[in-house]
Specification:
The protein is α+β, with helices and mostly antiparallel strands and 463 residues long. The chain folds into two domains: 335 residues, no CATH class; 107 residues, Immunoglobulin-like (Sandwich). It is built from 16 helices and 16 strands. Strand 3 and strand 4 form a beta hairpin. Helix 5 runs antiparallel to helix 7. It is elongated and about 110 Å long.
Length: 463
């Protein structure tokens, strides 16, 4: 009975075997390194870029304003965030259908930070063999010093990562002074520690477990694959049967395939899989096995490509169609959405006008016998400069606009609420409900103008 329970537990949970990825060099390793440098440079450097007297990229949540270089977005611009999420999802579909898990292997934050943590680990503990030897050795002062140095560097980088993250929401220079003075706010302190801890745990300890067990993308990626998707594959027809041999021996005469069973493709894999067992959901598409195998093939004087980017159709000897309808459709939709969002942002007018008609009365008559409607107007100046605005109304002949002031002043980033009255002679009304327009224009910048419609109510028919 006890053995049955133990067997059942083993079937549910497999104890983690620590992975020590071997360092690899090659074309794809250089591309990954370039990706890490560019992405980390953007993440850590962007909050320090200033534009005028303000941080170039700042998501000011208390003020409900989001600064992205020369643009200022407000909650009313939420449609742009929605569009960005849709574009990101379509881009993921596009690149996955085209070449598998490119995102996971080259741009995912888990991959990028894990690469940096592995680099620190190699600098402190040595190469793969030295790391494995250290791991098995008993705890000594030397081992404690090495491990302590590694974790100190990991924690320092993690805290700097959390500090940078908070710097996107609180001006990073002000936040730095607050950290030095130990005067950070509760939410700033929470996110600094939380994001730093998440980086330390995910990139330092969990590593491949995040990709294998925690990330949902690994589970549904197969739904976006087909037989023409570029994936990293082992050419079994060429490589089997495996076997070691000396360099210079013809594999065919020895009854062997090109695979010398060196297992380097397994040693360099960050998730510890054997690519020779076929496509597996644990594969993140980092191409480390491709570089390792190509290096071995060069030493054996065999042609490269035993492990390579290819398609299932190509492996089975059928024609491959990389640029197929689904890929072209994704690309067309992506280009269209990017163009539409880009045009919308470029032509965006940074002022807003909300018109609310007074619902306490359908209309009222003035002492002069005119029909009057009262409106509440909210003017939002989403620009970075102070503006004076002129308001006018149209839509009905001889329509008169009544305001307390001839012009309206609204400072940058402010909202002004004021009342406006529209009056008209009832003989000019042809129906009870009429469409009218409020037109707002900046006096010092005629390009800033907006037009909003409203309803004007009066007696039924003309008198």
């Amino acid at each position: 009975m006890t053995s049955s329970i133990e067997h059942f537990e083993q079937a549910l949970y497999a104890k983690r075997e620590k992975i020590f990825p071997r360092q690899v060099h090659g074309l794809f390793a250089r591309w990954r390194l370039l990706g890490v440098i560019v992405l980390m440079g953007i993440y850590y450097g962007l909050p320090w870029v200033t534009l005028g007297d303000r941080q170039a990229v700042l998501f000011d949540l208390p003020a409900r304003k989001f600064y992205i270089f020369g643009l200022t977005f407000w909650p009313q611009d939420f449609i742009y965030l929605t569009s960005l999420l849709i574009i990101a999802a379509l881009a993921l579909f596009f690149f996955t259908a085209l070449a598998g898990r490119l995102w996971c292997g080259y741009a995912c934050p888990q991959t990028v930070w894990t690469e940096v943590f592995l680099w620190i680990e190699r600098k402190v503990e040595g190469n793969r063999a030295q790391q494995m030897k250290l791991d098995k050795s008993p705890w000594t002062a030397r081992k404690l010093l090495i491990r302590g140095t590694k974790h100190f560097l990991w924690i320092a980088l993690s805290l700097w990562t959390g500090y940078t993250f908070v710097g996107y929401f609180t001006p990073i220079r002000e936040f730095g002074l607050a950290v030095l003075n130990l005067s950070t706010g509760p939410w700033e302190t929470f996110w600094l520690i939380f994001y730093g801890f998440a980086t330390y745990g995910n990139a330092g300890w969990l590593r491949e477990q995040v990709c294998i067990y925690m990330c949902p993308y690994a589970r549904f990626q197969s739904a976006m694959f087909d037989k023409d998707t570029l994936i990293i594959s082992y050419d079994a027809d060429r490589g089997e049967p495996r076997g070691s041999r000396k360099r210079g021996i013809d594999p065919k005469s020895a009854g062997l395939g090109d695979c010398i069973d060196c297992t380097l493709c397994v040693q360099v894999c960050p998730t510890g899989i054997d690519i020779r067992n076929g496509l597996q959901y644990e594969c993140i598409g980092c191409s480390a096995c491709v570089d390792a195998c190509d290096e071995v093939m060069d030493k054996m004087e065999y042609s490269r490509g035993l492990v390579r980017y290819t398609t299932e159709n190509a492996l089975e000897g059928r024609p491959a169609h990389v640029l197929r309808p689904r890929v072209l459709i994704y690309a067309t939709i992506l280009v269209g959405l990017l163009g539409a969002v880009g045009y919308s942002i470029a032509s965006r007018v940074p002022i807003g006008l909300d018109v609310i008609r007074d619902r306490n009365a359908l209309y009222r008559e003035t002492a002069e016998g005119l029909v009057e409607n009262v409106y509440t107007l909210k003017l939002i100046n989403m620009d970075d400069h102070h503006h004076r605005f002129r308001l006018s109304a149209s839509g009905l002949e001889d329509l008169t606009l009544k305001l307390d002031h001839e012009s309206i002043e609204v400072p940058a980033g402010q909202v002004r609420e004021f009342s406006a009255r529209l009056q008209i002679d009832p003989v000019d009304l042809k129906k009870a409900s009429n469409e009218v327009f409020f037109e707002l224009e900046a006096i010092n910048n005629v390009a800033l103008k907006v037009r909003e419609s409203a309803r004007f109510l009066g007696p039924t028919g003309s008198r």
